[in-house]
Amino acid sequence: MKLSVLETHSCRSSYRRLQYLFQEPPHSYRKTSRRVLACTGFNIKLLHDPDGNISTTQNGAYLEKQFKDNLKKAHNPKRTYQAQTLIISFSPDEFDTKDLNLQAKQALTLVQHFVHQHFSDAQSVIAVQADGQGGKLHAHVVFNTVKPNGKTISTSRFNIHQLRTNFDHEMSQNYQRVTYHSWTNPIHNQQKRQDANNLTTRSEWQQNLKQIITQVKSEVASLKAFIQRLGEQGITVTDRKKKTSWTYHQMVDGKEYKVRDFYQRVNKQTGEVLSTRGLGQEFTKSYLTSYFKQKENEEEEDTNDRKENDRLEKVRTMARDAKIRIARQQRLNQLNRQRSESAQAREQKQRSIKEARLSDRRDSKAKRRQSSVEERRQLEQQARRKRAETQRSADGPEL
Question: What is the reported pTM?
Fold first, then answer.
C-alpha cells in the first residue's frame, strides 16, 4: 500500500493561487476534461449550480475578494504571505480513478473532514483534481493566512511532518468507511532507506535525495536545524567554493554517493550555458539561507501579530470591563434615584395627610366656635326677651 503525499507551500498572492486552481484549462485530458472534479470550503461563500450543489466552476476573483476582506482585519494586512496551500496526492492504490466522479467525491469527503478537524477556524477552499500528467487524484487546499476573527494562523500548524501524521490517522480512521476498501498504514520514519537495495542508478538516488531535502526543509525553521535533521537521515553537507556552495553526501549500502547543490559550466566568451549539474538552484546554500531567513522573518512577524492581537484583546477587555462598570454604576444611580423619588413621594404623601388632618381640625374648631357664639347669642336674646316680659309684668297693663 503506497502512502498519500502531502506538500505545503507559502503563497505571496492568494489571487494567483485561486486563479490557478479554477481559471486555468486542464493540464492534461488523459483522465478528464474538467479542471476541478469536486470542491468545497470553510468560512467562505461558494458558487452553486442550479440544483443547489456547490459548483466545480468557481470564480477566482470572487473567492480572492473574500480572502482580502479577512486580510483587512489583520494587524498587518500587507503581510508578505497571503495564503498557505496544502497538496494531498493520493496513490493509485488508494484511488485507481476507474470511477473518477465517485472517487473524487470520496477524496473530497476525506480531505474535508481532515481540514475540519485541524483548520475549522481558518478560511479555506478545497479543490479535487485529476488533470495532471500522471492522472492521479489529488486535492488542493488554499488557506487564508488570516482567520475570520483577524488573527493570524501560526505557521507551525503547517508542519509537514505533523500534517502527514494527522492525515495518516484520518485515512486509517475513515478511508474504509468512505470507500468501503481497507487502508494499511505504511511504516514511517525508517532510519534505513527501505529502497536502499533497489538504488541501482545515481539519478534514482538524487531524486530520492531531493524528496528528503524538500521534506526536511518544510519541517524545520532554521538552517542549523535543517543540517542537523539531514544528519539524522544519514546525509551530510560540506562546503566548497570558499563556503559559498554545498556538496551533499550519503552512504548507501556501504557506498558513498555525493552531488553538488548546483553548478553550470558557462562559455566565458559568449555566456552560453554549456552544461548544468547538481540538484538544482533551490538546493543551493544561498537559496536555503535566504529561505530560512524569510521563514524566520515570517515567524517573527507572526509572533508580533500575536503580541499585537493579545495587546488589542487586552485593550478590548479593559474597554468591556470599563463599559460594564459604567453600566453597573448607571444602574446603581438609577436605583438610587428611584429610591430617592419614592422616599420623596412618601414624605409628600405624609405631609399631605398631616396638612389635611390639620385643616380638618381647624375647620372643626371654627365650627365649634361658631356654634358656641350662636348659642350665646340665642341665650342673650332669650334673656332679653325674658327681662322685657318681666318688665312689662311689673309695669302693669297700659291705660
Answer: 0.51
